[in-house]
Design brief:
There is one protein chain. The protein has 838 residues and is α/β, with parallel strands linked by helices. It is built from 33 helices and 25 strands. A hairpin with a 4-residue loop joins strand 15 and strand 16. Helix 5 packs across helix 6.
């Protein structure tokens, strides 16, 4: 393989850097490219410097040859003079080329990366303009000048055109899926929005793909160049065919009145209706900590690069933690907002730009990082598409997180001691995801929109919100009484009694309407042919259980106890846990409560429960039951609290991440020891309490018959099971698209588990996100599940879906689904097989 180097000489530094960036993208950094451009004169920076050209050549010199491309006039003279400074032996290896700067550079690097010698590289560069002229129809056959050897070195190129059908086009989450899929392949993926007549952009850049401004109905052309080009395009086409997993009615879409800003009457503040509901409470101001920094000159650029990398690494860990917590609180679908933030931190264009600023300008990491973030934010703001303009919030959110880490600042405190309405200029998605709906009764900001990610999260959390009100609200004293109506987009400061009466009446009427809408959710879920399926709730807090019961939950199929261990410096005591378990059981009023023992590790680290050594693959490491069996004090404390809470309630214990029979038996021995200790102390508990396991590891499926003989029930966790079956980390945005629980490989594992459980006479439920996907309902019914456990908000819809099907037709759909070759085809099968109800 030849090691040809390229030097770009130009009067304009910006032009040269742009050409280098474009050329480097074509070969993913395989070819050394140096730039010698501009002069050090702030008032007149255009020009060329022979010494600079000499230094550029020397920096990339190769015995295989250096190709120098130049723009106009003195660039040629500077290049000729620079060669004279080189040793005579090296001068023979440097070749000046008259090829066009942009096209020549691209053709040259591609040829060099393909292993051509210096003369072939020069020929390709010189022929680049002819190829372009042919495309424009200006010449007939320029390829006659290309030697036969060059016609065979190009990698296979494939191309597809498609129409975008999902409702909001390539907004943050679909763009994240697109980039993650493109990055899986060796081929270079380029995308162009034909409708908007954009330039081609890189398919592995979250910012470049998003700023194409792709909306529903736009036509794209996607090209793939490489050995796996066809496979890459097939995978990308599958995303579009499946609408990126989105319904064409947007999830948690804003109310129809979202953009109506109604005129305010006397005493009112008028804004944007972003999240419905009425709130009446004192205001509390939230002012994020301002992160200030000064740009300064640095000598040790490597140290600055390391600082930046360290901050980005920590930011990635923080966002993954936010994703995990948000998944507990609002579900994986909405938490996927943070997938795009993770991709932002991995964007090669962004990281290279920040690195380049540090290396070339000798400035500190804070200044370089903020400059790049500002450029990206500006590119979003200049888009014509208002929806995509709003994605700038996510850019700023990530940018501020890294900047805060570089500055050594602590995270902002969003904890409220008493219920209040939060008043702020704006809230980032990360801020909003951290809010406690029992304390934050409403949100009132002076900026924002109903389609922002913060608004989406607020609606998911059920927090009323009015955005875009007059800035005078920022001058209110904390404790001032405010009322807001998230449906009409109005707020009142110190409202008069008749306003309070009207709002209280509206709040009551709204709650009554919600209750009526959920009335059917309190009925059993029965198929058309009479089979009843239990519908439980997945919860992660006391407030969740109240929402679950109000939404029609027949019990709790998964209590994620991790929330007790988060946001604190030590593990919760036995008494603290007992109080929470009893409170939840009391709300359930003798409905079943399945408590999963502590499941930390993987994507759920706890700072005070350190592994003690870094794990290369934490998802395959010390997590779940493995961790608890090695921390017996921690494990026994939790078991004691659960057993003590079981008196008079239907509480069951569920063990996570079971991979072997030995683990189950070891946990049962420890449970027996705790029961004996309680007996000896005269403390009551339910001696007949049932014990079950999570089936979320492929080995558990393989030995499900043996495990079924040890426990009283199974609960299938399709979130983890899917990622382990597909060998794809669901929190890694680059491969998360592979983790689809409707893939036939996953469905076959689910079927095998259910068959083993029923053969042993035990029940089996499913508590992964798949249970809440009503498209999957006939599949789950046909597989024979006894219960489904979903996020509280999904209960009414799941019950309605169950009532639409009968078991016989569902079993027929399953039989066909298990024979499909992809999740996409399974979804297509369901869509074509299901007949809408009359």
């Amino acid at each position: 393989m030849a090691a040809i180097a390229i030097v770009i000489v130009s009067h304009s530094k910006q032009l040269a850097l742009g050409v280098r960036e474009l050329a480097a993208q074509m070969v993913q950094g395989q070819v050394p490219i140096a730039v010698a451009a501009g002069i050090e004169d702030p008032e007149n920076p255009l020009g060329t410097d022979p010494i600079q050209v000499y230094e550029a050549i020397a920096s990339v010199f190769s015995d295989d040859g250096v190709l120098v491309l130049m723009d106009l006039g003195s660039a040629l003279l500077s290049a000729e003079m620079a060669i004279e400074f080189l040793p005579e032996a090296q001068q023979q290896k440097v070749h000046l080329c008259e090829a066009p700067l942009v096209e020549g550079a691209i053709a040259a690097v591609v040829a060099a990366a393909a292993g051509m010698d210096i003369h072939q590289v020069m020929a390709e560069a010189r022929g680049a303009l002819l190829a372009k002229a042919t495309q424009l129809g200006l010449v007939s056959n320029p390829l006659s000048v290309v030697t036969p050897t060059t016609t065979n070195i190009e990698a296979p190129t494939a191309q597809i055109r498609l129409i975008v059908s999902n409702r909001l086009g390539l907004h943050a989450r679909p763009a994240a899926q697109f980039v993650a899929t493109a990055a899986r392949f060796q081929s270079q993926i380029l995308v162009r929005n034909l409708t908007r007549n954009t330039e081609l952009v890189r398919g592995d850049s979250i910012n470049q793909v998003t700023t194409l401004g792709v909306r529903q109905g736009h036509e794209l052309v996607i090209t793939a160049t490489g050995s796996d080009a066809d496979e890459a395009l097939t995978a990308l086409q599958g995303l579009f065919a499946n609408n990126f997993g989105e319904d064409n009615v947007a999830l948690n879409s804003p109310p129809a009145f979202q953009h109506q800003v109604t005129p305010a009457t006397h005493g009112e503040l008028s804004g944007i209706a972003a999240s419905p509901g009425v709130a009446i409470a004192p205001v509390v101001h939230y002012q994020p900590t301002h992160i200030s920094f000064t740009e300064y000159h640095v000598e040790d650029v490597e140290a600055e690069l390391q600082r930046l990398q360290a901050a980005i690494h920590t930011a990635r860990q923080e966002i993954q933690a936010v994703f995990s917590q948000a998944s507990l609180q609002i579900g994986d679908a909405e938490a996927a907002i943070f997938d795009a933030q993770l991709l932002f931190l991995e964007d090669p264009v962004l990281l290279e730009a920040a690195k380049e600023r540090i290396l070339e300008n000798y400035i500190n990491a804070e200044a370089a990082w903020q400059a790049v973030v500002d450029e990206v934010a500006t590119s979003y703001r200049t888009l014509e598409d208002s929806y995509l303009q709003e994605r700038v919030d996510d850019v700023i959110d990530v940018g501020q997180r890294v900047l805060r880490l570089l500055a050594g600042n602590a995270p902002a405190n969003l904890y409220l001691e008493k219920p209040a309405i939060l008043v702020a200029t704006d809230l980032t998605p990360s801020d909003t995801a951290r809010l406690d709906p029992t304390k934050v009764l409403g949100i009132c900001t002076t900026s924002g929109s109903a389609t922002s990610h913060s608004a989406i999260i607020a609606r998911t959390l059920g927090i009323p919100a009015v955005l875009g009100v007059d800035v005078q609200v920022l001058h209110l004293a904390d404790g001032t009484l405010m009322a807001l109506d998230g449906e009409s987009g109005r707020a009142w400061v110190e409202p008069e009694s008749h306003i309070l009466d009207l709002l209280a009446a509206k709040q009551e009427a709204w709650q009554t309407a919600q209750q009526e809408a959920r009335a059917t959710a309190h009925q059993p879920a029965i198929t058309r042919d009479g089979r009843q399926v239990s519908v439980f709730a997945n919860i992660g807090s006391i407030s969740d259980v109240q929402v679950a019961v109000a939404s029609g939950a027949e019990g709790v199929g998964l209590l994620r106890t991790e929330f007790l261990y988060l946001d604190r410096t030590s593990a919760p005591t036995e008494e603290e846990q007992l109080a929470v378990y009893q409170a939840i059981a009391k709300v359930l009023d003798n409905r079943p409560l399945i408590i999963r023992t502590l499941d930390v590790g993987g994507d759920k680290p706890l700072p005070y429960l350190r592994v003690g050594f870094p794990e290369a693959n934490p998802f395959l490491g010390w997590r779940g039951i493995r961790f608890c069996l090695d921390h017996l004090d921690l494990f026994k404390t939790q078991l004691r609290a659960i057993l003590r809470a079981s008196v008079g309630h239907q509480i069951k214990i569920m063990l996570p991440m079971i991979a072997t029979v030995t683990e189950v038996r070891a946990a049962k021995v420890i449970l027996g020891e705790v029961q004996a200790e309680l007996n000896q102390a005269g403390i009551s508990f339910d001696a007949a309490m049932k014990v079950g396991i999570m089936v979320e590891v492929p080995s558990a499926v393989a030995i499900a018959d043996q495990l079924a003989a040890e426990v009283d029930f199974f609960s299938i966790g399709t979130n983890d099971l899917s990622q382990y079956i597909m060998a794809s980390d669901r929190t890694n945005a680059r491969v998360a698209n592979l983790v689809d629980a409707l893939h036939p490989a996953v469905l076959r594992m689910v079927q095998q588990t259910i068959q083993a459980a029923h053969a042993a006479g035990i029940s089996v439920g499913l508590c992964g996100e798949l249970a809440a996907d009503t498209l999957a309902t006939p599949i789950l019914l046909g597989l024979g599940l006894d219960e489904l456990s979903v996020n509280p908000q999904s209960i009414p819809g799941v019950k309605q879906a169950i009532a639409r099907f009968c078991i016989v037709e569902s079993e027929a759909i399953v039989a066909s689904a298990l024979q499909q070759d992809s999740a996409v085809h399974v979804r297509e099968l369901i869509s074509t097989s299901v007949t809408p109800p009359a």
